[in-house]
Specification:
single chain, alpha+beta, Multidrug efflux transporter AcrB transmembrane fold, Alpha-Beta Plaits, 2 domains, 4-stranded antiparallel β-sheet, two-stranded parallel ribbon, 10 helices, elongated
Length: 305
């Protein structure tokens, strides 16, 4: 599959588009904040078991009528297992209250309380801070690896692309107020790895072409490299998205946000590998001289008999 697309002809438009989206994402994050889930804000988690398939919408409505506002209800494992997340503090009788309330609306079913857990706000705050630290450490180690494996400019471009991806995905969650929980945080770490993988493939081809192509135009070499890797990028992204859409629509409520974060991440990561990383290399002035291997000063003399 051969492509001949002038990607870099659109690089200024892509730069403006990315800048606007980054400003919107950061602004929303600062002024609107994220819709943090129970993992970060604290609350109560209740697991119930029904003898038959549970009616999730009916359970949710019963809880709201019973005064449990903001309750999140989802199947857990099977259609008979139900997981309820309640924001706020816990009481010793909360589990019994919920079972009693739900039993009164389902007289023909005996509901079993499997477990009740409480996540305090302090623990949630620590989880949020530790998650942010994990992302920063991941970015630092990836930058060191690429600098060692390729060249410092490639490392800088890759990290710029990764930071762009993380900020944009977080910004989308902030803008449309989708719940941000531990599964989304895990998805963000996966997005970093996925985006880096694609960026490394593109960077490796750019490095090879800088050494092998006769052209001295970095613009032309990067464009050629992007076209050569486009087929692989499209196939990988599309097959990944097929799986993620299946997870989103068929995987159940508990992993819906995880799948959604990965869908956003794959799309943004594919875009950033083409336009953000490549754009950054051009702006940093990458050329053939940066990859030229210097010969020892007395190399010619050493060859003399």
């Amino acid at each position: 599959m051969t492509f001949n697309i002038d990607f870099l002809a659109w690089r200024r438009i892509a730069l403006i588009f990315s800048s606007v989206f980054l400003i919107l994402s950061i602004g929303s994050w600062l002024f609107k904040d994220l819709n943090y889930g129970l993992d970060f804000t604290g609350g109560t988690l209740v697991e119930l078991s029904y003898p038959d398939s549970a009616n999730i919408s009916e359970i949710r409505q019963t809880l709201v009528l019973g005064g449990f506002e903001g309750a999140q209800v989802a199947n857990f494992g099977s259609s008979k297992e139900v997981l309820i997340k309640l924001p706020g503090t816990v009481s010793d009788s909360l589990g019994s209250e919920i079972v009693s309330l739900l039993s009164s609306s389902s007289l023909d079913q005996e509901i079993d309380l499997r477990r009740i857990e409480y996540v305090g706000p302090q623990i949630g705050s620590e989880l949020r801070d530790d998650g942010g630290t994990a992302m920063l450490i991941a970015l630092a180690f990836m930058m060191l690896y690429i600098a060692f494996r390729f060249q410092s400019m490639f490392a800088g471009a890759a990290v710029i692309a990764l930071i762009h991806d993380v900020i944009v995905v977080i910004g989308i969650f902030s803008l449309i107020q989708i719940e941000f929980d531990l599964t989304v945080l895990a998805a963000l770490l996966a997005v970093i790895g996925y985006s880096l993988n694609d960026t490394i493939v593109v960077s490796d081809r750019i490095r090879e072409n800088l050494r092998s192509m006769e052209s001295d135009s970095t613009h032309e070499i990067i464009n050629t490299s992007l076209n050569q890797t486009l087929g692989r990028t499209l196939i990988t992204s599309l097959t990944t998205l097929l799986v993620l859409f299946s997870l989103y629509f068929l995987g159940g409520e508990l992993i819906k946000n995880f799948a959604l974060a990965l869908i956003f991440g794959v799309i943004v990561g594919t875009y950033s590998s083409i336009y953000i990383a490549a754009n950054a290399l051009i702006m940093m002035g990458l050329n053939k001289d940066h990859l030229r291997v210097e010969e020892p000063e007395n190399a010619d003399e050493n060859l003399l008999p």
